Amino acid sequence: MLYYCSYIISFVANELRVPLMSFASDATLSSIQFPFFVRTVPSDLYQMEAVAAVVDYYQWKIVTAIYIDDDYGRNGIAALDDALTARRCKISYKIGFAANTRRSDLLNLLVTVSNMESRVIVLHTRAEQGFQLFSLANRLNMMGNGYVWIATDWLSSYLDANSSVPAEILYGMQGVLTLRAHIPKSMMKSNLVSKWGSLSKKYNHSDLHINAYGFYVYDSVWTVARALDAFFDDGGSISFSNDSRLHDETGGTLHLEAMSIFNMGNKMLDKIKHVNFTGASGQVKFDPQGELIHPAYDIINVIGNGVRTIGFWSNYTRLLSIVHPEDLYSKPPNTSLANQRLYDVIWPGQTSHKPRGWAFPFNAKELKIGVPNRFSFKEFVTKDNVTGSMKGYCVDVFTQALALLPYPVTYKFVPFGSGTENPHYDNLVQMVEDNEFDGAIGDIAITMNRTKAIDFTQPFIETGLVILAPVKKHITNSWAFLQPFTLEMCYTASLTSILTVQQLDTSIKGLDDLKSSDYPIGFQVGSFAEEYMVKELNISRSRLKALGSPEEYAENLKLGPKKGGVMAIVDERPYVELFLSNILQDCGCWLRFHQQRMGLCRPVYRNPSTVGEWRTAADPRQVAQDRATAHLTTLSLWTRTSSVLRASGACSSSVVWHVSSHCSFTFASCYADF
């Protein structure tokens, strides 16, 4: 009701042109909508920025939001949602409750939250309901190890204003983080606290303290006094007049027509906005939007019988720091994330070890990940016949990406193929699209047809279709230029005139030679190269010969087309490099004619609640982060073997010709859109 009244009063004050000094922190109230609205406390917009900064600082990516279902709660959580999104985090579950919700319903609410994946809970409510929730959370063992509770400033406001908080309340909130509007230390603040304590004991016979909002209220009175003084000094006067246009368009009972307009309201508003002094709450100065400058918050940890400040957040830098915000204002803002720091926290469960922020959901589904069971080139991916597990480079990339996630993904690998020959990858992709697999990992090429049905992660291997053909070596006599001369003759030449030339010769000079001949062409079993050559290059299928292993590659290249072999093999570059690095006695030349990459694939689900974890498990950002770090460098040591061998002369006859490509492919993991 309080925040509903704030809107009504703001509307009325705006119509009457009377400046409204408001203590409402609701982020949706602003001078843009109500020009005569002046907020004298920090907006919840900044408080939620501070909460999001804490979540991001500890590298949690999802939170659960519990809030009171009114304007204050809903608008605050909406601001939190925006702040988290800006930091690439999110609210995974929101649950609101009415102010008069029964205790049993609050208990059911917490049971629902306990079954969620996120263990980071943001509580945005009022003190009465907040303490009830903490009490019930203790009954459900939700205040122990693994949980993170972040309460907004309702908690610090209550604790600061009450000198004697019951021990059972504090005991039930151990490890909770909360925020407090930052009030700098000053003599004025100390004097006000002392004076307030004396008056409280004299008239109320109690020991009431002042919280942060008390300091803002005190300074608001002085703001109005200073503005009125400037207003009268500048010739202002208090006068009102009627306006026929002033009426209640909604037909309500406000009776605006009976009210009068403040004639010099704009001038008074201007004097308020130009107030600038140091009060009990710090510097009192407003920006052009009527908001206090330099909003900042203390980050507080509930420990033992009290609280401890572990750091600060300031809108000046938008970072967390252990340096008091007022000490930063005299310097240019340093917004480097490397400067962020908080003191150690005692978390729920009396532990100093940072909670991971998630747990396996109560009803989590295990993802079925299809993995090719290859017969050849097993370095990429295959099934271990001894342990039955899947292994290989692609599997290692997937597990490394999962290790970078801040929460778990449950999955199981399902071998695809018999292992006696390479499986057809189009069939694997079709099973992902048909929902038989939740995703797939492996050396899966990204073709145009496949991208229409499934999505792929960022690539992790540069590749492309190449032509592998045998070569013949012809060594020319580099001293042939001496034949016309006798030993008695003198010859002088520069060093560059003495050349040693090793010429390579192959019947395949380019893609046109491959297409125009009638000789057989080899391709790897299960590869998309077969359909590509038939449909895109118009090569007769009768010319194509399926080859199932590197040994068959070597044998068919050695035999040649006239003895039952092939004139060339069309395959993807990583396989060809691996073949050349292992089959050293028969080196060949290869011509790349299609740019391509390798990555991971997954479905894109329209219903993310079913297998939503896979969306993050194959998150392109995680694969990209792998590429940016040493993970893939370490994993791909074997891929450099071929380069080392060729550099040392073992495969010195390998040659690459670059030809413009017609389309783009990628080795990837896949995921489909339903």
From TrEMBL:
Listed name of the protein: Ionotropic glutamate receptor C-terminal domain-containing protein
Organism: Eleusine coracana subsp. coracana
Membrane topology type: Multi-pass membrane protein
Gene this protein is translated from: ga06260
Subcellular location: Membrane
Main location: membrane
SMART domains per the UniProt record, alphabetical: PBPe
A Pfam family that the UniProt record links to this protein: Lig_chan-Glu_bd
Superkingdom, natural source: Eukaryota
GO molecular function: G protein-coupled receptor activity; ligand-gated monoatomic ion channel activity
Cellular component GO terms held in the UniProt record: membrane
Keyword terms of this UniProt record: Glycoprotein, Ion channel, Ion transport, Ligand-gated ion channel, Membrane, Receptor, Transmembrane, Transmembrane helix, Transport
Domain Ionotropic glutamate receptor C-terminal: 368-599
